[in-house]
Amino acid sequence: MHQGLYVVHIAAEMAPVAKVGGLGDVVAGLGKALQRRGHLVEIILPKYDCMQYDRVRDLRALDTVVESYFDGKLYKNKIWIGTVEGLPVHFIEPQHPSKFFWRGQFYGEKDDFKRFSYFSRAALELLLQSGKKPDIIHCHDWQTAFVAPLYWDLYAPKGLDSARICFTCHNFEYQGTSSASDLGSCGLDVNQLNRPDRMQDHSSGDRINPVKGAIIFSNIVTTVSPTYAQEVRTSEGGKGLHSTLNSNSKKFIGILNGIDTDSWNPATDPFLKAQFNAKDLQGKEENKYALRKQLGLSSAESRRPLVGCITRLVPQKGVHLIRHAIYRTLELGGQFVLLGSSPVPHIQREFEGIEQQFKSHDHVRLLLKYDEALSHSIYAASDMFIIPSIFEPCGLTQMIAMRYGSIPIARKTGGLNDSVFDIDDDTIPTQFQNGFTFQTADEQGLNYALERALNHYKKDEEKWMRLMEKVMSIDFSWASSATQYEELYTRSVARARASPNRT
Ligand code: ADP
Ligand code: GLC
């Protein structure tokens, strides 16, 4: 008999097969960490056409199909299973004429609400029809937030009643609101749910909010850092959900994400020109040289500092400050490499302009695309890494950067505030100091941190080396955060078993 918990994650992303941003990293990283702690972990994902199929092992279709309800009809779903990063994954392929996951992209379709409410229902149907009895169903972000009300309103009464529901919101900016009538497609009862104390959005009596529904209907609600959990409880930070969060505060907590230290390991990383570790930094030099060569940047001075930035180019990330950092770094005698792309057309255009401007420049390169291999090379090659976010629920890039000996320059917000601690701040114990931070989201604020970083780098090579060694040794693994999730799960399951009639 299995001793641990049986945990099923239902999500729209999982690294490396279907990743847009940090959500994908978290589903894989947390899943692996829980598995390592002896729990039975499974993942359910949509079967996207644009997945990285070469990263799925033993992919095969099951003989049985699962039928699920949508818009008044039953549709067949082909179910595929495979292994990703050692985790068993079920992929759902709807046999629906709209070809929901056959669009060449993960998100950004006009019918995203339909695509993911369909998926949420089909995932629960898969659990029900295959007789699975998870202890925890863990859903993530608005795309699978529907799972919480669907579970309690429709699936617990049908007998899928062993589970507790955990919902993690990775970013309260994306709430998936839609007009109330759209909710009925997946079988939820609009009349019951379009109420201010249920799924009705604060903006209008005719809009429903899946994230609000998940907060209300889940047993456990988490977000991805303690500071962000505080920020979203305020009217400025909560994007309309602060009062819902405050009235559900007993079940709401912020847990800092970890990173997958197997995938992000400079000592074994197959994408690198040369592997390295905290005790042997020679390889880092070689990566810097190789990246400069690959991108056509000048290698004339090995000690010219290289500043990296890898990000989705969206307002949250402080795009105007990123732009400013490019020019300011150049003025201060550094090099800058940006890897990023934008779903926002005017931002993408603006950065294409800057990319052109620096096309054959000796010290600046912009790469406006998504490229996993290149991201590893940039983390490894850069001396510093900039994250000037306006808000940041957790942020993984500062942790990855540190693991590769690149010193973060970050704005003190959300998870950045919980993981980057200023080297010049005497109130912070020396052993925790690991980067350069600034408070105000403007050019002066950024200059303050960037200039100090470059000065430190230039002034004392030996000290900088010790700083690199220190940040590379910080434990950003999932170990301690996975333990916190495990405790939440265990307590919730125990509460349910103690009083089985309570939801
Ligand atoms: P968010 O989820 O808000 O985008 P995170 O910092 O949590 O931010 O996670 C971003 C993840 O996506 C990191 O693993 C980062 O390396 C990766 N990433 C972002 N942009 C790109 C890109 N253009 N190419 C490759 N990887 C990227
Ligand atoms: C979201 C947030 C980011 C976080 C990631 C993983 O995309 O924007 O801050 O690190 O989710 O939780």
TrEMBL record:
Task: Show the HAMAP family listed in the entry.
Answer: Glycogen_synth (MF_00484)
The UniProt similarity line reads: Belongs to the glycosyltransferase 1 family. Bacterial/plant glycogen synthase subfamily.
For this protein, the record's InterPro entries field holds: GS/SS, Starch_synth_cat_dom
This protein's name? starch synthase
State one molecular function term (GO). Answer: alpha-1,4-glucan glucosyltransferase (ADP-glucose donor) activity
- Quickly give the catalysed reaction: [(1->4)-alpha-D-glucosyl](n) + ADP-alpha-D-glucose = [(1->4)-alpha-D-glucosyl](n+1) + ADP + H(+)
* KW Repressor (keyword) present: no
* EC annotation from Swiss-Prot or TrEMBL: 2.4.1.21
Sections of the chain in a coiled coil? none
Q: Which Gene3D superfamilies match?
A: Glycogen Phosphorylase B
Q: Output the SUPFAM superfamilies linked to this UniProt entry.
A: UDP-Glycosyltransferase/glycogen phosphorylase
Query: What keywords tag this UniProt record?
Result: Glycosyltransferase, Starch biosynthesis, Transferase, Transit peptide
N-terminal signal peptide:
none
Q: Which GO terms describe its biological process?
A: starch biosynthetic process
Q: Looking at the record's lineage, which domain of life comes first? A: Eukaryota
Which pathway does it operate in?
Glycan biosynthesis; starch biosynthesis
Positions of the Starch synthase catalytic domain: 7-246
